[in-house]
Amino acid sequence: MNASHEFILRVRNLRTHFHTDQGIARAVDGVSFDIPAGKTLALVGESGCGKSVTALSILGLVPHPPGEVSGEAIEFEGRNLLAFSEAEMRRIRGNEIAMIFQEPMTSMNPVFRIGDQIGAVLRLHRGLSKAAAREEVLALMQRVGIPAAESRLEDYPHQMSGGMLQRVMIAMALSCHPKMLIADEPTTALDVTIQAQILDLLRVLQRETGMSILLITHDLGIVAEIADEVVVMYAGKKVEHAPVAALFAAPKHPYTRGLFASLPAMQQHRQRLYAIRGAVPAPTDFPAGCRFHPRCPYAMDCCRRDEPPLLETGDAHRTACWLHDAGVMAAQGKAPGLPPEAAP
Amino acid sequence: MTPDLLVVQDLVKHFPVRKGIFSRVAGHVRAVDGLSFRIPRGKTLSLVGESGSGKTTTGRAILRLIEPTSGSVRFDGIEVTSMNRQDLRALRKRMQIIFQDPYGSLNPRMTVYSVLSEALRTHRLPQATGARDRVYELLSLVGLPPEAADRYPHEFSGGQRQRVGIARALAVEPELIVADEPVSALDVSIQSQILNLLEDLQQQLGLTYLFIGHDLSVVRHISDSVAVMYLGRIVELGPVEAVFEHPVHPYTIALLAAAPVPDPARKRRRILLPGDIPSPINPPTGCHFHPRCPDAQPGCARCETPLIEISPGHWVACPVHAPGAPANA
């Protein structure tokens, strides 16, 4: 089997910069990852880490100017999307890679009926007739679990709840049988019982269609539920990349560990929470060296000076942190690795 | 036993729904539909529930930022609902609110110094000379540097703005703080800073919190007791351990099961509730939850659902799992 077929998407050294009045914002700065066919990769991080911009860059949706997407390649089934024209991208979007957003309400046109909006996609992308499109829309709406789908075809977006609209968005995204779905915070605006329904739906649909999912989220709970692999981003950089079980069992980057430690646990009560000191720096003003060093409890001299490379720290577990570099740590007379938990 | 600082009884807030050119009242949104709970001084009670459950309305009605339709709110023994404006103004020194979106609740044209000194002035605190010192004291209390005083809200990050919001609430030395989703808009690493701050302040100043939230792990962390709301009513109320470890109401159980847990190894029994939360304009009859309830019985559509005390301090409103207490048993 050819290596390029194992992975539906390979992102190589992606850089997306924005030219602003305050200087160049390096929103995404040299990020690489591969998504295996039929699997879910989660991009995790806090606001401003570049996770959404990564998704928009893949789909060629970053406005230019001020945005500028460069890098080695965004390979989708062996084709480099970075070299595609806008017309070629338009054939990829929706047909082969579909996307759903956080706010289903603002992603729909408020003056068109639900059935017509999904139907328009089918007629445009798949050239169906009006009657055939309607049949197909109905089937899609039933498939994503919209009750009484027939009567809801005539609804306008405002007549539907947030959870139902997200189902409509998913139906629309699935309408052209995409090979990959990019889901940008798909449940963030939803209540927790509705969120559980939508995550369940995504899992079922992935099993049925074999599509790959790129999930963008800030919620580690959702990652644990649905992802196979995780990329943790901080300030435009990939800081850690691992299979989900390995990451949750033993995070290797001080930032990832800090994130886990800041979560209030459902099982315990009133223990003082760990807090990562300071705040995320502005994208026009990222610090030199490791971008996390001003907030890191273990920062060393080299962290302030040199950017850490991505180091292999275990089976398919990679992290960008000097603490894991044998040479650097040996020079300090220490063994490589993250110091024991008690330290923060 | 600590005396209760806040006692809410049968609180009701209905909003009229108007229709047509004559604004005829066509119905009511029963946002809060007969709520009772109490918070001992120095403790934290959380209201949890999904959108439309009435938790925010409850917080505002208690402070009379919106007028309750009926019911009683007693603060330190004083009835709040029947109070005139002047007395209410004086009482507001003792009860304050912090909001979810600190950006939306701070005037963008005022420096932090003006925001905080305005709060002092509005309540005519006798600190004409000491106002400046008091502002710096407040900033250090919430962990902001003195330079923050001369900056505008947009110059702060979300977490710092929430600190400003907290400082403003603290300016008048309140006893009760209604915290309406204070960390929902913040990133996790910042959320923990603010939760720690709220707890430190509670210890230092003896504050009482009514915490409104939807994130169950946050609520678990910060509360002494919890009231789970569904469509304007409390379905379960009790000490935080009782409600989280031994939930009884099917809605509480489903809510806890739906919350994603950051542990991929943990295989949970998922309870997928069918359907959406119904509209509070025409809530289902009987128990509001019965159309989505996995344990519903035919009687649930008709019966009353009073809160029944199933163990000391743990109250449940479910005719199936907490049938009426046997008389004098």
Residues in β-strands, percent of chain A = 15-25%
Secondary-structure arrangement, i.e. CATH architecture of chain B: 3-Layer(aba) Sandwich
Alpha-beta content class of chain A: alpha/beta
Rg estimate of chain A, integer Å: 22 Å
Low-confidence stretches of chain B: none
Strand order within the widest beta sheet of chain A? 7-8-9-3-10-11-13-12
Average pLDDT reading of chain A:
90
Task: Kindly give the count of domains of chain B.
Answer: 1
- Biggest sheet details of chain A: 8 strands, mixed
Overall mean pLDDT of chain B = 89
Q: Using CB atoms under 8 Å apart, which protein chain pair has the greatest interface?
A: A-B, 44 and 45 residues
Mind telling me the C-alpha Rg of chain B? Answer: 21 Å
What can you tell me about this protein's structure?
The complex is a heterodimer of chains A (344) and B (329). Chain A has 344 residues and is an alpha/beta fold. In chain A, helix 5 packs across helix 6 and helix 6 packs across helix 8. Chain A has 14 helices and 13 strands. Chain A has an eight-stranded mixed sheet, with helices on both faces. With 329 residues, chain B is of the alpha/beta class. Chain B has a single domain, classed as Rossmann fold (3-Layer(aba) Sandwich). Chain B is built from nine helices and twelve strands. In chain B, strand 9 and strand 10 form a beta hairpin. In chain B, helix 3 packs parallel to helix 5. Chain B is globular. At the A-B interface, helix 9, helix 10, helix 11 and helix 12 of A face helix 5, helix 6, helix 7, helix 8 and helix 9 of B.
